[in-house]
Amino acid sequence: MFEAVIAGATDPDIEGVEVVRRPALTVSPAEMLDADGYLLGSPANLGYISGALKHAFDGAYYQLLDSTRGRPFGLYLHGNEGTEGAERAVDGITAGLGWVKVADHVVISGKPGKSDLDACWNLGATVAAHLIG
Question: What CATH number is associated with residue 4?
Answer without folding.
Answer: 3.40.50.360
